Amino acid sequence: MSHFTTMTTQITDPEALRSALGDVGYGDVEVHDHAQPLYGYLGDQRSDRANVIVRRRHIGRASNDIGFRREEDGHYLAVISEYDRRVHDDAWLGRVSARHAYNATSATLAEQGFHIADETVEEDGTVRLVLRRIGAGQ
């Protein structure tokens, strides 16, 4: 039985995190105001808790839940078992973090009256956006 480890992230927006997890292949994501228990690969409830959770049945038969726990400062800690860190490693967490930033930025732009008119992803992964103000020359 592997234990859960935590990794610090810059993630702050639970809905942008839900979208980011969807972007990397996990469409069924739970978001809770109060942290909920995580479960191990045998279905055993662990002492670890999280606010944003991908349940093990959506990851793989021998996997544990993957969670993100909201800290007092508003950032989320990734809570991932040692076993699942073989796939859900720093590179995976980097992709989730990048998609979180993209989704949070897109939502903020929409709130400010902009929409993304064009998007280009550079070879190094940099995303370049062309914005238009909604209602202006559409």
What is the helical fraction, as a range of percent? 10-25%
Count of individual domains: 1
Structural class label: alpha+beta
Q: Low-confidence spans: pLDDT under 50, at least 5 residues?
A: none
Distance between the termini: 56 Å
- H and E string: EHEEEEHEE
Strand order of the largest sheet: 1-5-4-3-2
So what's the oligomer here? single chain
Spatial extent as radius of gyration: 17 Å
Mean pLDDT: 92
Residue share in β-strands: 35-45%
Strand element count = 7
Global morphology: elongated
Q: Main sheet? A: 5 strands, antiparallel
> How many helices in DSSP terms?
2
What is the topological layout?
Blueprint (H helix, E strand, L loop, with lengths): L3 E5 L5 H10 L6 E10 L5 E10 L11 E5 L5 E6 L8 H22 L2 E8 L5 E7 L5
Helix pairs in contact: 1-2
Description of the molecule:
With 138 residues, the protein is of the alpha+beta class. It has one domain. The chain has two helices and seven strands; from the N terminus they run E-H-E-E-E-E-H-E-E. A five-stranded antiparallel beta sheet has the order 1-5-4-3-2. A two-stranded antiparallel sheet has the order 6-7. A hairpin with a 5-residue loop joins strand 6 (114-121) and strand 7 (127-133). Helix 1 (14-23) crosses helix 2 (90-111). The longest helix has 22 residues, at 90-111. The relative contact order is 0.19. This is DUF1257 domain-containing protein.
